[in-house]
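Next comes this protein:
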Amino acid sequence: MSQTPSLQQNFNQNLVEFLRESPTPYHAVKNMVAKLEQHGFVQLNESQAWQLKDNGRYYVTRNDSSIVAFTNGNHQQGFRMVGGHTDFPCLKVKPQPELHKHQYLQLAVEVYGGALLNPWFDRDLSIAGRVFYIDTAGELKSSLINYRKAVAYIPSLAIHLDREANKKRSVNPQTDIPPILCQLGKDEKADFRALLKEQLAEEGVTDVTEVLEYDLSFYDTQGAAIIGLKDEFIVSQSLDNLLSCYVGMTAMIEALDNSSAPMVLVCNDHEECGSQSATGAQGPMLKTILHRVAGSTEALAQAIARSMIISADNAHGVHPNYADRHEGNHQPLLNKGAVLKINANQRYASNDETCALFGLLCREAGADYQYFVTRTDLACGSTIGPLTAGELGIRTLDIGLPTFGMHSIRETAGTRDAFQLNQVLQRFFAKDQI
């Protein structure tokens, strides 16, 4: 790459800060909105008529956890689209969570997505998310909440009480993982909603009379960091897929002065549990927005025929201790470029045309790229790519940055990869024709 190392370092430090401040999809979308508004993007309300200006910059959020940002250019050039997802595997607090056992307060949790559970033990955990409450005027309101400090812990069972732990310990998600929050007096009981009211007051929300509902999850208080003897790795919870959301957003912003075709960034919620929701990729959100932007079914059909979406999700980097889990000729390495994800049975939506287009973009940007095909005797995961392709009929490419520990509470990616993908996506957004 022609850029100096200081640009890459600056990019990754900003990425680290974004990850640290985005413990839930709600916080991620809030932070993306703040960044987009700094660059002239204006919020649209789905319940109102839109009056879009030529070359206008807009964004739409739904449920505070999904976002679509776009520029209003010449639709006949087609849309240049990048997609990701805001959600990630975690432990969500159940509606009636209080567990009082042996004078400890624990919270019952539900596993969201395909979480790797063992790494959640013995970590300093906090709580964040969204809370709905009744204010002093009797109105229903909501607020984001973030304890920030460590307030919970899931202790492992000592090896003295489980001598086979290193050989065959399994995790029961119902009984083994309720986090411990505090000790209580002998007859003391805790009310979690009352505790939330206290926390809201601590965060400056003082008009709460009663907490009604919430969507809260636990997260790792050990924030994102750059590690490695050569600062070559970034580690964090939620790299899958806030990493791609951030890279796509910054590429779009940096391409604003160089793109004549309309650009679209879509970051959906609920990918980790199947995407079939009002805010997920298998729902109508993106198609509805594009239809309103294009103005008619005919105009949208013409635009889609000239469009392409790059679905940017994470890919499995070859683990040096488990290299046999990869197909022999397709073993992506961290810091060796984005991965073209290919599956003959359409678990990924890439085809030869979209792969060739991405390869050309990488060559123009001086960036590396790699391939991933899962072993034929292993099941293949999927992304928002095939779902978006099926909903829109749009040319689609599935890519990802190689990652260790996907779906762990702490994942690892390469610092060079994130920066390079940003450069490639800038070129994609700026393409007059694709």
User: Anything to note?
Assistant: The two ends are 23 Å apart (CA to CA).
